[in-house]
Amino acid sequence: MIRAAVGFTVKSGWACAVLVSGSGTSPVVVETRRVELSDPAIPDARQPYHAGFGTARDAGQELSKLVVSVKRFGRASVTKLIREYQSGHHVGGVGVVVGSQIDPKTIANDHIRIHALEGQLFLDVVEDAAERRGVRCTLWRERDLLSAAVTALKRPEKKLRDIVTALGRDIDGPWRAEHKAATLAAWLVLAARQPPAQR
């Protein structure tokens, strides 16, 4: 089977997924996809910890139901995607890009804390789904990703930017910052890992 890795850029309620095949020296973008991590039929699930702009939702049954909904729906979406990719590729790992890794409990500001809680929730969903498919996750903060790639891939920053931009030229649809970040994360996984035994 073709060796590959999946990169995810995690957002609030959704993630950008990019399947990258090849090797650490010659990556190829196979496809990109938007993966819903919250049920579109439940709009509040996109930001479950928000009661309104900048206002935290009170702890209780409503919040619990929204969080459970995200975990169930998001895990199913990501598990399905990885399973589909595993049917045609030897997925050696998953690279996940997030905005922050700060523990929400350490944040005093309510507004920032609820964003951190949501970021942690959606990250946990992706990691849990990957684990269920027997695939290990590697995590990067978005602001650290490029410098990590410069070190690991031994290429200058401008060269990496140019390569990642070029990798998206043959892809139908947009090629935005989240696609590039997910691609770079998947490339790093390809460069770092030998394919493990797979289910």
**CATH architecture name:** 2-Layer Sandwich
Major sheet strand order: 3-2-1-6-7
Number of domains: 1
- Outline type: globular
CATH homologous superfamily classification: Ribonuclease H-like superfamily/Ribonuclease H
Number of strands: 7
* CATH fold title: Nucleotidyltransferase, domain 5
How many DSSP helices?
A: 5
User: Uncertain spans, ≥5 residues at pLDDT below 50?
Assistant: 194-199
Query: For the CA atoms, what is the radius of gyration?
Result: 17 Å
User: First CA to last CA: what distance?
Assistant: 13 Å
The first-level CATH class is given as Alpha Beta
> SSE order in H/E notation?
EEEEEHEHEHHH
Calculate the mean pLDDT score and round it.
92
Largest sheet: 5 strands, mixed
Strand content range? 15-25%
Q: Which structural category do the helix and sheet elements fall into?
A: alpha/beta
